[in-house]
Specification:
Blueprint lengths: L4 H21 L6 H23 L6 H24 L5
Helix pairs in contact: 1-2, 1-3, 2-3
Length: 89
Amino acid sequence: MYMSGQGILVILLVGLIAGWLAGKIVQGTGFGLIGDIFIGIVGAFIASWLFPRLGIALGAGLVREIIDATIGAVLLLIIIRLVRTGGRW
């Protein structure tokens, strides 16, 4: 699979925005610039796997990607927080 530099830039930008938004939604879980990008990208993978199975489609285009990645990143941050605190919120 070939990806252009522009495609990678879009993935990183969506990951950054989604990770930052998820960090704001789930208070107290900021991981810095690189961590937020990673959380956003992993969140996008989670959402792209989970949402079609649930029949969920929100928005269209780039906005949809950001919304999906943000929701997936929020789910990931909640799981990380639960694991770190031993199951306590």
